[in-house]
Specification:
Blueprint lengths: L1 E4 L1 H10 L5 H8 L4 E4 L1 H11 L8 H12 L2 E3 L19 H9 L4 E3 L3 H5 L11 E3 L1 H10 L1
Parallel strand pairs: 1-2, 1-4, 2-3, 4-5
Helix pairs in contact: 1-3, 2-7, 3-4
Length: 143
């Protein structure tokens, strides 16, 4: 399965080792789940990793980024993009929908309520299934 992980899910997976992400970690390790990112998403992760509430010094921030880079595939825009996508109320989250369309993701795994609200959107539909970590873990386990 092809997936885009939003920034909060990456933090849950790599910093907090949230139990809801353990199945995702196993699926990534065994190649069942392929994760994609691009520079705008990586820039956001770098910015968020520096937030004081995570208490990550510069070395720990870089280790988190390096860990993520170690299992993701880059999927950068090759030129102008014109996908017919639903609009997220938080413009900062639109990049995850665009990335999902670009890399032909099966899943967009997120904790963001604005993105999760788009899951049932029909006109235009999201480019992939938008679900939380627990639901993604269950879906992957069922396969």
């Amino acid at each position: 399965m092809r997936a885009v992980l939003d920034t909060n899910v990456v933090i849950d997976l790599l910093h907090f080792a949230d139990p809801q992400t353990l199945a995702l970690r196993r699926a990534i390790a065994d190649g069942t789940l392929l994760c994609f990112s691009d520079q705008p998403c990586l820039d956001e992760l770098q910015r968020v990793a520096a937030y004081p509430q995570f208490m990550l010094d510069a070395g720990a921030q870089q280790a988190l980024i390096d860990s993520y880079l170690g299992f993701l595939e880059r999927c950068e825009a090759a030129g102008p993009e014109d996908y017919r996508l639903p609009r997220c109320r938080d413009a900062d989250d639109q990049k995850f929908l665009i990335l999902g369309a670009r890399c032909r993701a099966d899943l967009l795994i997120t904790r963001d309520r604005q993105l999760l609200r788009l899951a049932g959107q029909r006109r235009p539909p999201p480019p992939c299934l938008i679900i939380g970590s627990a639901a993604a873990s269950a879906l992957i386990a069922a396969r």
